[in-house]
């Protein structure tokens, strides 16, 4: 039995997602939604009612006007942190409600 040339798993996954752009986009969206609490902390997560991702925009429903105001001041920084966690430029805008 012959052995095939081995490749690192990371390289294989990169190749797979490179060929499946839609799947890669959905994976990055999922990463953004899953890292919300880790990036912004448990305090913000507690006042977050709903996270929705559509067409490059992350919609966040909050039940605290004070937290919403604070997040608006850091909007660009939050977008860059979320994109770093997603490992791609997936979040184009952050809409806080």
Describe the structure.
The protein is an alpha+beta fold. The protein has a single domain, classed as GMP Synthetase, Chain A, domain 3. It is built from 5 helices and 3 strands; from the N terminus they run αααββααβ. It has a 3-stranded mixed β-sheet with strand order 1-2-3. A hairpin with a 2-residue loop joins strand 1 (48-54) and strand 2 (57-62). Helix 2 (21-40) crosses helix 5. The mean pLDDT is 86.
Main beta sheet strand tally, sense and closure: 3 strands, mixed
Q: Specify the number of helices.
A: 5
Helix and strand run? HHHEEHHE
Helix content: 55-70%
* CATH architecture descriptor: 2-Layer Sandwich
The total count of strands amounts to: 3
Structural class: alpha+beta
Mean pLDDT: 86
For the record, what CATH class applies?
Alpha Beta
Low-pLDDT runs of 5+ residues are none
Can you tell me the overall shape? elongated
Total number of distinct structural domains? 1
Quaternary status of these chains?
single chain
Quote the beta fraction. 15-25%
**How widely separated are the two ends?**
61 Å
CATH topology: GMP Synthetase, Chain A, domain 3
Strand order in space, largest sheet: 1-2-3
Radius of gyration: 17 Å
């Amino acid at each position: 039995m012959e052995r095939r040339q081995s490749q690192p798993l990371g390289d294989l996954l990169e190749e797979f997602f490179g060929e499946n752009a839609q799947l890669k986009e959905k994976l990055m969206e999922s990463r953004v939604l899953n890292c919300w609490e880790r990036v912004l902390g448990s305090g913000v997560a507690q006042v977050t009612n709903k996270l929705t991702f559509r067409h490059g925009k992350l919609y966040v429903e909050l039940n605290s006007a004070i937290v919403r105001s604070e997040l608006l001041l850091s909007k660009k920084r939050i977008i860059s942190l979320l994109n770093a966690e997603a490992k791609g430029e997936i979040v184009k805008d952050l809409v806080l409600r």
